[in-house]
Amino acid sequence: MLLEVPILIGLMVAAIALAIAAKRASVPYNVALVLGGLIISVGHLLPGVPPLNPQVVFLICLPLLLFEGGITADLNGIRANAIPIGLLSSLGMVLAIGATGAALHFMLHLAWGPALLLGSILAVTDTVSILYAFRRAPVPGRLAGIIQGESLFNDGTALVAYTAIAAVVVGGQAPTLGSIGGHMLLASVGGAAVGLAMGLLGGFIIRRAEDPLAEIMVTTAVALASYVLAEEVHLSGAISAVVAGLAVGVTLRREVPPQSQVAIHSFWEYATFGVNTFLFLSVGLDTRPEALQGHLPGVGLAVVAVVLGRAVAIYLPFLLLKLFKPAESIPLRWQHVFLVGNIKGALSIGLALGLPENTPAREQLVAIAFGVTLVSMVGQGLALTGALKWLGLFQQDAVALEMAGQRGKLIASRAAHVELDALHTQGLLPRAAYEHLRSEYQVNIARAERELRRISAQHLAEGAKDLLSMRRRLIDAERTALQGARRNGLIPEATAEEMLAHLDARMLDLEKVLHGGSASKDSKEHGAT
After folding, report:
1. 307 lies in which domain range?
2. What is the tens place of the pLDDT at every residue in 57-85?
């Protein structure tokens, strides 16, 4: 997709408007972008937008997203849940492709080759939507960790299976389990080895760069190079990018100064936001309702096939896990989330568009892939939060909610008290009315302060967490003041850099403590002071 500048500006304006609308309508951002792109496409509001180029998805978007997922992933959480994550990404993916392909074969009367090929396309989950949802949803930590870990690694195995199946289908051969399985194993292990080597090399360079901008450039090069290099030697570029991100992430947390960590993570947060926006809009823009009309029954049957295939891929491996490794077993309610959260995305679209022209039943495969992806992203994207609440997994901390309510009363009462003084000073309020209202708000302020002290005293953990959150706001205020002083020439550049680096170190320590880690010695000493 090569965009002219006016079209690019138009898409950015559309993305901004959709982001604002999604926030006000309480609609997931990704769903709003897909629907917005569909409206733009149907209404011809931005003529001249080229179709999505699969090479852009595979060579730029996918490496960046997977690397960012690896660099920000909780390695300890992945290590602790390695068995269920590995089981879902290997056996689960094979079962998903096989069961979905079999269902498509019997429901749509597709030949086995195209059916399995479409099954591999629809077995891919949208990593972006999953990570976005579960980084913000207050669900149990282990559940979120397993889903995020699986979403990072299943793309790799699905892409390997897709490549192997496409090769035999286009070549006119019948796919065999042995050939596909052997290719998947070799590509996965080899891709992980390439990613580890690139990640270690990137970490070696980052430790010696000692410049945040150069370090950002290194991480970008590692993200793209790890994927491309693995693909060039016919290995899994997706797994390579994830492993490279994990390796670089370890280096950042252990050996890179806090200021560089903050700069690198800020860059990747913005980069992935931009890529996500592009991909979600592209799904809507490239969906042609007129092309789907002749395949609507097939799309409906394919949605059922995908659900059945995912159910086999989830419940069977977890049953085996319960039988042979009871300590690692997953509650049944959690298993349902893996089914509901199986959202399709732009990667499925890219795989469908990337099918060679001589692929049997290519037009039907592409149309069904588009239809299922649209239904999945909109339907499941809207239903995911409700499903989590219905399953009782959307954890609401009663103490935190009570504290937030009292804090809201305190903020509102103090604001009213300030406005009351201003009205009285301007002579707009009689003395008697002023005294009466002033005493009323003072009582409200005193009551809210008393309740906040009581909650903090009775729930020490919540009180400590609240204190840490306030410290984080104060550090932000310090940073803003220091940056202003540096811009105005009130303090030298070297002094500002040193003080900002110290603030970054304190901020990282607070983030670790808030997420269950431990603060560094310097931060503890500062807190005690």
Report:
1. 3-391
2. 888 888 998 898 889 887 777 877 888 98
CA atoms of 150 and 148, how far apart (whole Å) = 6
Q: How far is CA 522 from CA 169, 274, 461, 526, in A?
A: 61, 36, 22, 6
Residue 529: band (very low, low, confident or very high) from pLDDT cuts 50, 70, 90: very low
- Distance, C-alpha 152 to centroid of its chain: 10
User: Do 330 and 295 belong together in one domain?
Assistant: yes
- Please count the structural domains in the chain: 2
Q: Using CA atoms in the order 524, 249, 465, 412, what is the torsion angle rounded to 10 degrees?
A: 120
Q: Is 346 contained in some domain? A: yes
Q: Six-digit token pair at 137?
A: 């949803």
Average pLDDT on 388-408 reads 73
Two structure tokens written together for 377: 């992203």
Q: What is the pLDDT of residues 258-317, one digit of tens each?
A: 778 888 988 998 888 888 888 888 888 887 777 777 788 889 999 999 999 999 999 999
Contacts of 453 (CB under 8 A, 6+ apart): none
What is the distance between the alpha carbons of residues 391 and 244, in angstroms, rounded to a whole number? Answer: 35
Please work out, in degrees rounded to the nearest 5, the angle formed at the alpha carbon of residue 239 by the alpha carbons of 237 and 81: 175
Shared domain for 21 and 125, answered yes or no, is yes
Three-state DSSP state, 123: coil
CA distances from 429 to 413, 417, 507 (A): 18, 13, 45
Look at residue 524 in the predicted model and tell me its pLDDT: 43
Do 277 and 413 lie in a common domain? no
Report the alpha-carbon distance of residue 466 to residue 83 in Å, rounded. 35
Residue 34 lies in a domain: yes
In angstroms, the Cα distances linking 84 to 149, 198, 506 are 9, 26, 35
- The packing angle between helices 177-209 and 237-255, to 10°, is 30
Task: In the chain, count H helices and then E strands.
Answer: 25, 0
* Cβ neighbours of 271 (radius 10 Å): 18
* Residue 411 sits in the same domain as residue 380: no
- Closest to 61 in 3D by CA, of 317, 359, 324, 346: 346
- With vertex at residue 87, the alpha carbon angle to CA 130 and CA 173, rounded to the nearest 5 degrees, is 95
Mark whether 175 and 288 lie in a shared domain: yes
Long-range pairs for 23-32: beta carbons < 8 A, 24 or more residues apart? 27/382, 28/129, 28/132, 28/133, 28/381, 28/382, 28/384, 28/385, 29/132, 29/280, 30/126, 30/128, 30/129, 30/132, 30/276, 30/280, 30/377, 30/381, 31/377, 31/378, 31/381, 31/382
Task: Give the global pTM.
Answer: 0.73
Q: CA-CA distance, 93 to 99, in Å (whole number)?
A: 10
